[in-house]
Amino acid sequence: MDIALAQFQPGPDHDANRKRAVEFMERAAEQGAQLIAFAELALHRFFPQHPRDEDAACFAEPIPGPTTELLSEAARRLSLVTVGNLYERDQSGKCFDSSPVIDADGSLLGVTRMVHIAEMKDFHEQAYYHPGDRGAPVYQTRVGRLGVAICYDRHYPEYMRALGVRGAKLVVIPQAGAVGEWPEGLYEAEVRTAAFQNGYFAALCNRVGREDRLTFAGESFVVGPNGTVLAKAARGQDELLLAECDLNLCAESPARRMFWRDRRPELYGSWLA
User: Fold this and answer.
1) Which residue has better confidence, 52 or 25?
2) By residue range, what is the domain housing residue 160?
3) What pTM value is reported for the model?
4) How many domains is the chain built from?
5) What is the CATH number of the domain that holds 254?
């Protein structure tokens, strides 16, 4: 199958950003993609770069809600599995960094919520997000089984392994990665390693463009289950990145043929306690 990553810089008009997201979905479908994924907080500014942004609350919405309904309608019309990311507020008033997963018929399969919440210079996420309470779900979509690792969660091998254990053949990573945030090439190497160790495809969709305190790098990419980069977007510019992924190759990966065969899970719990 072909997958698409929508790497674009959002503007100040939220409705215009949502319209643009649908346009990217239409372009992806026209080019033969069966799945599209968006970056972290793709439809508005990255407010966690500030310790306190009093206007951030206006971006929070329920799921289902206006954005997921718009994406679901477009997904149904275009027969496009869609992985979004937005600022979610649940019925109790708690807020999460959340990725709705929408199947190609427009149905909302579920919502992944970011589990690990960062607090560091220009990434003050603990001021806005509660830790996710949905675990590491994997969804059976029309194109295959996929999981989501939202940005900071990708740093945790336990989380990335859990997605593999639950049968994911593709892991989508919505990210807000800035220029100079980590040593050059490190986050790419990290994702390549996770894909290699777990025998799945990984598709990282990053933010792009200059904001108040950060310049987001772009450079979205797709990795195969043998750890090789299959496609990569440009730095610093909007792009719809497409890549071909044959999920049947997961079964032939070193991880599925060897590493997983020789696992000793009965030992690991005591090591990590």
Assistant:
1) 25
2) 2-272
3) 0.96
4) 1
5) 3.60.110.10
